[in-house]
Predict the 3D structure of the following.
Amino acid sequence: MTAVNLPASDPARDPAAPITSKPRTLAHQKAKGLKPGSPKPAKERCSECGLCDTHYIAYVKEACAFLNQQFDGLETASHGRPRDLENDRELYFGVHQEMFAARNTQPIEGAQWTGIVSLLACEMLERGLVEGVICVQNSPTDRFGPMPIVARTPAEVLAAKVNKPTLSPNLSVLEQIEQAGMKRVLAIGVGCQIQALRAVQHEIGLEKLYVLGMPCVDNVDRAGLQKFLETTSRSPETVVHYEFMQDFRVHFRHEDGSIELVPFFGLNTKELKDVFAPSCMSCFDYTNGLADLVVGYMGAPFQWQWIVVRNETGAEMLDLIRDRLETQPVSSSGDRKQAVQQSIPAYDQGVTLPMWAARLMGVFIERFGPKGLEYARFSIDSHFTRNYLYTRRNHPETLEDHVPEFAKKIVSQYQLPKS
Ligand SMILES: Cc1cc2nc3c(=O)[nH]c(=O)nc-3n(C[C@H](O)[C@H](O)[C@H](O)COP(=O)(O)OP(=O)(O)OC[C@H]3O[C@@H](n4cnc5c(N)ncnc54)[C@H](O)[C@@H]3O)c2cc1C
Ligand code: SF4
Ligand code: SF4
């Protein structure tokens, strides 16, 4: 089991030391969250994870993923050890005991994929394993506007299904958990939110925290999302759902149920270059390395979800719904390296292919390109090299400390531009 009462980063602490419970410091009780719109401690690199909206801002210097990279220590605290950099699967996908592809045998209508995340969260509430679930619904006035909540019923969890493809302050509800006196909680979130949560989890007064993570990359703020939709979709106002898929196309689902496909290689890279949030251009936690259980799609065959069980808590969670899943082993084929190397200068120069050439390229790469885990490595390599360059160019003084060792090792396989 993952220990609770995990210590926040302490520079004096040996990250490999076993985790023991640490008394709560309660330093947060006198602190106050920032007012909406106030500048955040991580400045432009803030991913709006929500921590600074609460009194847990007291720990921001240690907890914020953009102010204090502490991957090894938090992996050790969460899983009992840091990832093994000599093991290729761990280097890329983090500490894990099991990995496979799965589908919910009774897909949840309107979920992002087959609704494995919502299914599990509902099950945990129904069985009384947790009293609340941190998740994010839509704001009533904006279908893509995030509205984090602590769900107490399956109906509230189901109302949070489907991605809100924007930065979301999920941790802004942390104070509610402490005030409600909750002791057992499930948190659903993406990497930057989970890094901050892991660093403060011993301060919330919980007996047990379960963490269900999703991979995440290339997120945007609400204005960036609008620009992306307007630049890329034929009908931005009717998009209800989109995903960058393993077939190298963006799949937009519209209100009338129609699907629009846009090849990655046809994206207007020049226009879109500054659309991704600076936080996401500086992020190296694509596969949510600190969650107990990860549910995504990147390492699975097209139209399957990808499940990564990181520790005993993750296995305990998955066991609740195993019999509701159709599964198959993960596989891997193709060779990503050349495509990644070529994408580095192409992205830098904002190369955009005409649509006919992009479609042709998409068809070719779908047939002969990397698949399964190799597709996931392709995506990780492309984003890590891009984000490494972004950090080197825009925040050179933080490069050494901010980039985790696993990401440095991945990036070192490629030749980067000198400046
Ligand atoms: C912003 C974002 C980017 C992603 N990028 C990738 C990727 O590049 N590769 C990959 O393999 N998988 C990615 N995923 C995960 C994937 O898209 C699915 O969310 C995952 O497979 C679960 O699908 P589902 O049908 O089980 O989820 P559902 O049952 O539909 O549940 C979705 C859950 O996501 C939560 N959520 C929605 N929006 C946010 C948000 N902005 N921040 C935090 N939590 C949120 C909701 O609370 C809900 O509980 C991403 C997810 C998000 C939210
Ligand atoms: S990313 Fe989160 S912890 Fe860091 S400054 Fe922003 S709100 Fe605060
Ligand atoms: S890409 Fe990274 S920083 Fe951006 S929202 Fe996702 S996990 Fe957070």
Remarks:
- The longest helix spans residues 373-394.
